[in-house]
Structures are given as C-alpha cells and as structure tokens.
UniProtKB/TrEMBL annotation:
The keyword Iron applies. The keyword Iron-sulfur applies. Gene3D superfamilies: Glutaredoxin (3.40.30.10). This is Monothiol glutaredoxin-4. It comes from the Eukaryota. Residues 163-227 form the Glutaredoxin domain.
C-alpha cells in the first residue's frame, strides 16, 4: 500500500519530482502545524493512500509539505491557505483542492488516478457507491448539508490559531488597504497570528460573513471569538494599549504564524 512521505527541503522536493515517471500522479498536501484542519486532512490522505498499491512505475506518489517551512515551494504554486491539495502529473498541475473536505479530495484523486488505469480497480467501486446516493438527494438535502459542513469548517478555521486574521491577500501581499493596515498593526505589536486569504476560497469568503454576522473584511478573531474589523481593532488599542500583549512574541521576533 502507498504511504504519505513528508518532504523536508526544497532539494528533497526537486529530487522526488524528477524521480517520478511521466505517468505518475503526484498528490501533494500542503499543511501548517497551527491549522487544526490539517491534522484531519493528514488522516484522510493516509487512509486514501492505503487504498493504492505500490506499482512499478508508481501510479501515484503521495507527499506532504509544511507550507511555512518550505515557503519557496508554497509561493511557486501560489499556496495561500492550508490545507491545500495539489495534483500534478508530468509537471502539470491538474487540479487543486483548498480546504478540508474529504469528499472533494477523494473525488479529485479518484478522477485523475483513474486515468492511469493502474488504480482503477481500487477506486471505481467507492466512486460508484458514493456518487449515486448523492445524486438522489442533491435537489433538497445538499444545500443544507453543504452549509452545515461549511459552518463546521469555519468553526475550526477561526480557532486554527489563537489570533486568526481573515484578509484579502497574504501578509506579504495584501490585496486591500484595510488588510494592509491590519497586518501592520499586528506586526507593530509583535503578534503571532495565523491568516487565511479569503480571495483564495469563495466558500469561506461568503460563508464567514454569515457565520460571523460581520459583512466586511478583514476580520480578526482571537481565541475563536470575533474581535471585528480594522476600526474595532484600532478602537480596542486606543482603549487598551496592552490589548495584544498576551499574544506578543517579541522574544523570538516571529510576527506571523503563517507568513514571513
């Protein structure tokens, strides 16, 4: 059975990619230690990998990458949120899946793994049994189920780090002035924080507005509770200059849990 291999260096990634046959489907999972959904995704991928036999040449290759430690690789593939799955064959990115939906991940892998023919026996059965029931209830139950799954995911995301910033863009490349100012405030106060680029996931972008009952971005969350947008954060600091003190990491100088 296949297993998930952790890539720990850029050199290791390059060597692994160059060693694969053109027909091999490279299944790459980007993760971060502070993001709780990544642990869930690791379990999902480990289970899925076990369904695929080790062949010669490899039909599938499964690897995991720490998006923070190997930021050069993350930036090369425009990885702006975790968990993030990328399917590659012969140097071409076939499909990406952002988020922790096990169903979306399985469907994407099965779709592309089947093209090699090697894993068809292992994957055709589960694909057939899962797709038919979903088709029968799609018109009524799916929207409700989808919202429940999204809200569950959002509930995990807002707690992914003690301080979580939902912003447009990334700390190194903010895509709006308000997000840029928020990043500046967090850095000035040496706050260690996680972030999520809402431009990279429209489900989160739209769903969080309803989940938080807050219609604009950026949004700052602390310990799973919404603080608010830029104006609210500025107001909190005016009233209490030590507002961010419990989350300050001046000792190590690391101002972001997800980006440098």
């Amino acid at each position: 059975m296949s297993t998930v291999q952790e890539i720990t260096s850029v050199e290791g990634w390059e060597q692994h990619v160059s060693s694969l046959a053109p027909s091999t489907l490279l299944i790459t999972s980007f993760h971060a230690p502070w993001a709780a959904p990544c642990a869930q995704m690791a379990t999902v991928l480990s289970t899925l990998a076990s369904e695929y036999p080790v062949t010669e040449p490899l039909a599938t290759s499964w690897v995991s990458i720490n998006a923070e430690e190997l930021s050069d690789i993350s930036e090369a593939y425009n990885v702006t949120a975790v968990p993030f799955l990328m399917l590659i064959r012969n140097g071409e990115v076939l499909e990406t899946v952002s988020g922790s939906s096990a169903t979306k991940v399985r469907e994407a892998i099965e779709k592309h793994a089947n093209k090699t023919g090697t894993a068809a026996t292992a994957t055709n059965g589960p694909a057939a049994t899962t797709s038919s029931p979903e088709g029968e209830v799609a018109t009524e139950e799916d929207p409700v189920k989808k919202k429940e799954e999204l809200f569950k995911r959002l509930g995990e995301l807002v707690k992914a780090a003690p301080v979580m910033l939902f912003m447009k863009g990334t700390p190194s490349e903010p895509k709006c002035g308000f997000s840029r100012q928020m990043v500046g405030i967090l850095r000035e106060n040496s706050v260690k924080y996680g972030f999520f680029n809402i431009l990279a996931d429209d489900d989160v972008r739209q769903g969080l507005k309803e989940f938080a009952d807050w219609p604009t971005y950026p949004q700052l969350w602390i310990d799973g509770e919404l603080v608010g947008g830029l104006d609210i954060v500025k107001e909190e600091l005016e009233n209490n200059p030590d507002f961010f003190k419990p989350y300050s990491v001046k000792a190590n100088g690391d101002s972001s849990a997800a980006a440098s």
